[in-house]
Each structure stands twice: as C-alpha cells, then as structure tokens.
Amino acid sequence: MNDRLSIALRCVEEASALALKHFNNRHTLDIATKSPQDLVSEADLEVEHMIRARLNEFFPDEPVLGEELGGEVIIDGWTLDPIDGTGNFLRGSPLWGISLAYLAAGQPVIGVIAYPALDYTLSAKSGKGVWLNGDPFARPEPPQNLRIVGIGSSNNWPAESLGQLELNLRHNGWGLAGYRCATIGLGFAALGQIDGYLERFTNLWDIAAGAVICREAGLLCRIEGKQIPAAMSVAVGSEELMAVFAGSRGD
C-alpha cells in the first residue's frame, strides 16, 4: 500500500507539470463540448493518458476508471480525473485539480489531489493521516461563528432541490461557497478552509481521492450511489453539518 501511495504521488507530480504547462498556454488548446457546461480539452486527454501509462508501468494488471477514457466498475483499482474543473482551467482560474485514488473492496483507501496552479498537493492513506506537500498535516480548528460550506453544481442537480438545500443551509447559519469543482471543494474542506462539502449527481473519479483525504483529516464522510455516470453523491463535514445535509436531500 505504501508503494501505491508513493507511486500515485509520482504520477500526479509528473501530470501536474504537464497540466500546468497547458494551463499557461490554454488559449492554444483544442476544446470539445461533451454536454452543456461540460468541456474537454486536449490537456485533459494528455494528462489522463500520462497517468494511465505510469500506472501501467507499476501495476499492469490493475484496472483504471477515468473521466475521459472510461473503464469498468472498480472494486480493486484506480480512478482518476485528469483535470477536475476544466471550465475553471479554461477560463484562467486556479481552482482546478488532478485527482487520483485507489479503491480496495470498493472503498477509496488512497487519495492524491494536486492543485498545480496553487502549488500544493494533498495525499492520504486510510488510517495514516494526511500530508500537505509531503509534510504531515493536521486540520486546524475553524474560527468560531464563521461557518462556510461548499456546494457542488452538477448540471444534473435539479435547480429547485439545489435551491432548497442552499436555503436550508442559510437558515441554519451557513455561508455558501461554490467552486464548480468537487476536487477543490473536498480539498478545501480537508484543509479547513470550509467546514464541509456536498455534491450530488457526480462521479467516482470526482470524489474518491477527496473522500479519503477528508476522512483522514477528521471529517465525517458519506459516499452513496453507483459507478454509473452522474449517479454518486458525497457529503463531508461535522456531525451537525451532516445532519443538515441529510435533512435537505431533495434529490
């Protein structure tokens, strides 16, 4: 397992350099539209190809499920999002990331998230804690009376139920943050920059690495759904916040 974590870090480090190069030259990229508000660029494809190639060198028999190149349902294997937050990436926002996770018996147990434009990397292994840029990390206690929660924005999330959730959170005293990137929302929750994060109608590759990192940072974490497109959800946060999430399902 230690080998998997170290190799995952090496894969993501190499991919980060490639992604950042493309980010700095994003106006030259070829871009295609998968669906409204969902784009793919040559950067996404090149980064996924690179990570898959590196994983295959070390673990040739282990399956990989990725956003751009697909794959089978993962029980024991890897899942990756080469550039989560492609829209942010293409508009020049630094709020995008690379996400790589390993699952054992269907559960994420290793996670690596890199934010190349912000110059930091989070990693975690079940039962071993979190590292930030290679150093052990302890999530700080948030300031009192400053409550902020991140909410996802899947195109498949009905506007009425999303609006009701946001209204319920505001009524319960929470400020809202939207990043249009699950990898950012989950990582920021683990770092203590927000109190928690909720995303519905999402995919395994968007949330698996962040879920491990949040859990190891001390947050409660719940993943639900099936490994089919836009059929999963993730919630992370304190017991109080998770209760608010549970009371505002509105699927």
What fraction of residues sit in β-strands? Answer: 25-35%
Specify the number of helices: 7
N-to-C span: 36 Å
CA-based gyration radius: 17 Å
Low-confidence stretches: none
Query: Strand order across the biggest sheet?
Result: 3-4-5-6-7-8-9
- Broad CATH class of the largest domain: Alpha Beta
**Can you tell me the number of structural domains?**
2
Globular, elongated, flat, extended or rod-shaped: what is the shape?
globular
String of helices and strands = HEEHEEHEEEEEEHEHEHEEH
CATH superfamily grouping of the largest domain? Fructose-1,6-Bisphosphatase, subunit A, domain 1
- Biggest sheet, open or closed, and with what strands and sense? 7 strands, mixed
Find the CATH topology of the largest domain. Answer: Fructose-1,6-Bisphosphatase, Chain A, domain 1
Helix content: 25-40%
Overall SS class: alpha+beta
Q: How much is the average pLDDT?
A: 94
In total, the number of strands is 14
**What's the architecture of the largest domain in CATH terms?**
2-Layer Sandwich
